[in-house]
Design a protein that fits this description.
Oligomer: single chain
Order of helices and strands: HHEEH
Organism: Ideonella livida
InterPro entries: DUF2905 (IPR021320)
Pfam families: DUF2905
Protein name: DUF2905 domain-containing protein
Strand order of the largest sheet: 1-2
Keywords: Membrane, Transmembrane, Transmembrane helix
Amino acid sequence: MRWMIVFLIALLIFNRFGTWLSRFGFGRLPGDVRFRLLGRDIFLPFASAVVLSVLAAAITWLL
């Protein structure tokens, strides 16, 4: 349950600061998926969300 909350927080952070994080390579990792469906661009940042969730878990563990 705890890892799901951390994963959700990482997704929210990525959606909010996506353009800023793209300067550091997030959003272009091998596990991130981009495709076009019915004229809309869909972006699913799986790998970036995992990296951010690990970072968030490490920060919470240290605190």
